[in-house]
Design goal:
By secondary structure, the chain is of the alpha/beta class. The chain is built from 33 helices and 14 strands. Among the domains are: about 350-510 and about 700-748, 3-Layer(aba) Sandwich (Rossmann fold); about 525-690, Rossmann fold (3-Layer(aba) Sandwich), CATH 3.40.50.2000.
Length: about 750
């Protein structure tokens, strides 16, 4: 044999060229001649690791380290432990490598990568920065640093690192994709789309990037294009659970619930612990009225709620199932925790507020629903009626502009209407801050399309949850919830993260200018029988539960001349509900479905019903107040949670408390009694007609003065330096309404 150095050099040549048999033979010959040759032991360990023989690799490299503890040996030992899943041991070895050689780029990079994999981005960041300081032209290190910055919520810094990585290597697929993800997390979906398209130009067959592109398209309101890209991603990678779920989500939003359900099921099959997919599956099954599967899905969701680590289950879908106030609070807290990284961004943005007394408060209303939407139907007159001597009104819109009459009225009703749809969360928050908004009222909560990240950045000193989301947000960045004592009795306060602000009448604002045609269509025009009692329910079909439907069918069985008039929803749910009726001995023809109509026509036809039956656990909200505005009495059953007590609040404020029941048995009995006692029902309708324009529910001016007083009390407490606390707004005397000033007067 040649000299040992010559043999080692030759072995390395074989090793690097992939001639492993020849290399191994030479390493072993070296060890036969010199059993404690550290390099030969180390390289045999490396070769064993490359062959997947990790235990053997550990044996050899440990022996080498005992003989000669070099930085390279420790680094490679760390790599073996990492491959074995022993991440703590890997961390220890990489740290030791850096002790041996502090300027060791590869060890710093490897240690950062393991810490990142352990979910420790804060610890990983300085390691990547150390590696980058030693090798500033390495695009991969820049990209990895961007990853850990993004994981900490440092999105601006992450974007800068990704851009630096791409400046060094424009062909880095990971850089384009991850830059797109960071931009999407900022709400810059158009910019994210451009990044994904650049990534696909490099590798068109990358399913993950296709999925990300589709999400960006969906967020921009381009569902058809998104669906095409999701299908393309699945064609490239049929087992991509994320693309499967996202396609189902998008189809569901477009009304194709049947395929959406199938896709959500497929995503459960591909990834059994996929909480989002199962949560959405439950929601769609509710919409379809497929109750056989629903009970098991609800049970699993409630069971998962108690899991650790805390699952991310949609609080909105959780409101719609039979849950307690405590369960809803837990779900909301878990969801709110995902916005924790925004606290760091908030600190970096340098927002600073002053506690200055002022006559005129700047109030901002944040929403995506400033168009023909239920929230807009309720809110519009509030904007118009605000006393401009005391309140300056700014609407911040991140939703679509449909160009309709409602949008035009909303814009005209504000002092300023600011479209932030194309802005990132940070840009929108900066706009709100620079506008010096005193009280920011969020009208979305956790409903579809919400950009909670804006609120999480806390661009205003006081932030309020109101109207759009009927529950707690479980977040420390929302100070108050505007409510009333009926929907949130004081004993329920422990289940709200917000401090409760009790308005004296009803929490819900109503627009008295909602269209109400003078002429009621005939029953025949509505598809209803000419004679007989008409029970109606125009709530969304997901609110119809098996238990409530069973009550309705018993009522129809007891009142044989009656029909049940429901909102059309989708074809599948109509077929399912008719099937459920038949299974309970009720002629399916006694279920009549109302097709969608423009709002003014719908409100006119509502009067063809005799009594509206509410749902539980989710009451009607806008649908219930619409019915009362149209003169149709509403029968409700209240539950424990806010979302199950809304109609009761409305009925209290309109002066019809006897239509509030506290059990489904009483609800059923009263429905039957009113159908059999036309005189009693007629009396209720007469009282409703009398109260409609005099009771607090539709007294929009009275409501506006009360909510303005609530804002003032919040601000006074803030100025005094005190923390938010529950507020009881005193009732305004009906005889002492102040005149409304419609235009700005004086400085804000």
């Amino acid at each position: 044999m040649a000299t040992i150095p010559d043999a080692l050099a030759l072995a390395l040549q074989h090793h690097q060229a992939g001639r492993l048999t020849e290399a191994e033979a030479l390493y072993r010959k070296i060890l036969q001649a010199q059993p404690n040759h550290a390099d030969a032991l180390h390289l045999l360990g490396v070769m064993a690791h490359q062959a997947g023989k990790h235990e053997m690799a550990v044996e050899y490299i440990v022996r080498a380290i005992a003989l000669q503890p070099t930085a390279e040996y420790h680094n490679n030992m760390g790599t073996v432990y990492r491959a074995m899943g022993k991440l703590d041991d890997a961390v220890a070895q990489y740290r030791q490598a850096l002790v041996c050689r502090p300027a060791y780029v590869q060890a710093a990079y490897n240690l950062g990568t393991v810490l990142k994999a352990q979910g420790k981005p804060t610890e990983a960041e300085p390691l990547y920065r150390q590696a980058l300081a030693l090798k500033s032209d390495d695009a991969q290190i820049c990209c990895k640093l961007g990853d850990v910055l993004k994981a900490q919520g440092k999105l601006e810094e992450a974007v800068a690192q990704y851009r630096q990585a791409l400046a060094l290597n424009a062909g880095l697929l990971e850089g384009h994709n991850n830059l797109g993800v960071a931009l999407a997390e900022q709400g810059k979906f158009g910019d994210a789309e451009a990044c994904y398209r650049q990534a696909l130009a490099l590798q068109p067959a990358c399913a993950e990037v296709r999925n990300n592109l589709a999400n960006a398209l969906r967020e921009q309101g381009r569902p058809r294009e998104a669906i095409v890209e999701f299908r393309h991603a699945l064609a490239l990678k049929p087992d991509c659970a994320e693309a499967c779920y996202n396609l189902g989500l998008t189809l569901g939003e477009q009304g194709d619930l049947h395929e959406a359900v199938a896709l959500c099921r497929q995503a459960l099959a591909l990834k059994p612990d996929y909480d989002d997919a199962e949560n959405r599956l439950m929601y769609y099954v509710q919409h379809l009225g497929e109750w056989k599967d629903l009970e098991a899905l609800i049970a699993r969701q409630k069971q998962r709620l108690q899991a650790q680590p805390a699952p991310r289950l949609s609080p909105f879908t959780f409101l719609a199932i039979p849950t307690s106030a405590a369960e809803q609070w837990t779900c909301a807290r878990n969801w709110a925790a995902t916005f924790a990284p925004y606290a760091l961004q908030r600190d970096q943005m340098g927002f600073c507020f002053t506690r200055t007394p002022k006559l005129r408060l700047r109030v901002g209303y944040l929403s995506s629903d400033y168009y023909e939407h239920a929230t807009a139907y309720l809110m519009t007159e509030l904007f118009e009626l605000h006393d401009r001597a005391r309140v300056d009104v700014t609407a911040y819109s991140y939703g679509k502009d449909d160009g309709g009459a409602m949008r035009q009225r909303l814009v005209a009703g504000c002092d300023r209407f600011v479209d932030v749809q194309g802005a990132s969360f940070q840009e929108a928050a900066r706009q709100i801050y620079e506008d010096r908004i005193d009280i920011l009222v969020d009208l979305k909560g956790y409903t579809k399309g919400a950009r909670t990240g804006i609120l999480a950045l806390r661009p205003a000193p006081i932030q309020v949850n109101y109207l759009g989301y009927p529950g707690t947000m479980g977040a420390d960045f929302v100070d108050y919830l505007i409510t009333d004592r009926f929907i949130t009795p004081p004993e329920r306060a422990p289940f709200f993260s917000e401090q409760l602000v009790y308005l004296p009448d009803c929490y819900q604002i109503n627009d008295r200018q909602r269209p109400l045609a003078a002429q009621t269509p005939t029953r025949a025009a509505c598809g209803l029988p000419a004679k007989g009692f008409v029970f109606g329910c125009f709530n969304s079909t997901y609110k119809i539960t098996s238990e409530v439907f069973a009550v309705w069918m018993r009522v129809l069985g007891t009142v044989p001349s009656a029909v049940l008039w429901l909102y059309e929803g989708n074809r599948v749910v109509m077929a399912n509900l008719r099937g459920e009726a038949q299974a309970r001995g009720i002629d399916p023809a006694r279920l009549v479905f109302a097709r969608p109509l423009p709002r003014d026509q719908h409100l006119a036809r509502v009067r063809c019903a005799d009594l509206l039956l509410d749902t539980l656990p989710v009451n009607g909200h806008t649908t219930a107040s619409d019915a009362l505005w149209a003169g149709l009495p509403v029968l409700t059953c209240v539950g424990e949670t806010l979302v199950s007590r809304v109609a009761g609040s409305l009925l209290t404020a309109i002066g019809l408390p006897e239509l509030i029941t506290t059990s489904l048995a009483d609800y059923e009995a009263l429905a039957v009694r009113l159908a059999r006692r036309p005189d009693q029902l007629a009396g209720l309708r007469r009282r409703l007609a009398r109260n409609r324009l005099t009771a607090p529910l539709f007294d929009s001016e009275r409501f506006t003065r009360h909510i303005e007083r609530a804002y003032r009390l919040m601000w006074e407490r803030y100025v005094s330096g005190e923390a938010p606390q529950a507020i009881e707004v005193p009732a305004l005397s009906l005889a002492k309404k102040r005149p409304v000033k419609r235009c700005p007067t004086g400085p804000v």
